[in-house]
Amino acid sequence: MKKRILTIALVALLMVGVSLGTWAIATSNYGTSSDPLITLSYLNETLMPQILADFKSEMDKKVEELTVEFEAQIKELEDRLAQHSGGDVFVTLTLRAGQSLTCGEGAEIMLRSGTVEAWSELSDLTSGDKLQPSGTLIKNHMYVVVSAGGGIGANSDAVILIRGAYTVN
């Protein structure tokens, strides 16, 4: 039994010795300041430029993808805006003498200042009357354009509020 314990102890001591020797050789030969695993010049001259080039390439691709996506969104919004000239809110518009306004059907107009005459029949919502072509708009009355292509012409500089589709000529 003593022999067996002595044999086991000797084998264990031998294994520890071999392990320590292997560890000492590995740590002394690799990665020292005199013999590094990777040299600083390799990092600075080869690895870093490669990493930076790869990063720049990937970033350029992503920027291009986002640029295309944003340009498509901008185009879509511009198209929607062009189709919706006018809208749900009143817009203050200044017409110079001689300018005209062509409106879409149902556009609403209110004269705030100046002198303006109708080109086509307008409905005066304030008084409940019809304004015939060549009739003069009354300040602060709400008018609705009865048919598409109808509109008004400014005899003097005028400020109007308009809601709906329109084109200044």
| Biggest β-sheet strands, sense, barrel | 6 strands, antiparallel
Helix-strand category = alpha+beta
Question: How much helical structure, as a percent, in the residues?
Answer: 40-55%
Specify Rg, calculated over alpha carbons.
43 Å
Instruction: Compute the number of helices.
Output: 2
Order of helices and strands: HHEEEEEEEEEE
Task: Describe the overall structure.
The structure is a single chain. With 169 residues, the protein is of the alpha+beta class. It has a domain at 91-168: Jelly Rolls (Sandwich). It is 43% helix and 24% strand. It has two helices and ten strands. A six-stranded antiparallel sheet has the order 1-9-3-7-5-6, with no helix packed on it. It has a four-stranded antiparallel sheet with strand order 4-8-2-10, with no helix packed on it. The longest helix has 44 residues, at 40-83. The model has no long low-confidence stretch (mean pLDDT 86).
Task: Set down the secondary structure blueprint.
Blueprint: H1 2-29, H2 40-83, E1 91-95, E2 100-103, E3 108-113, E4 116-118, E5 122-124, E6 130-131, E7 142-145, E8 151-154, E9 158-163, E10 166-168
Antiparallel strand pairs: 1-9, 2-8, 2-10, 3-7, 3-9, 4-8, 5-6, 5-7
Question: In short, what is this structure?
Answer:
This protein has 169 residues and is α+β, with helices and mostly antiparallel strands.
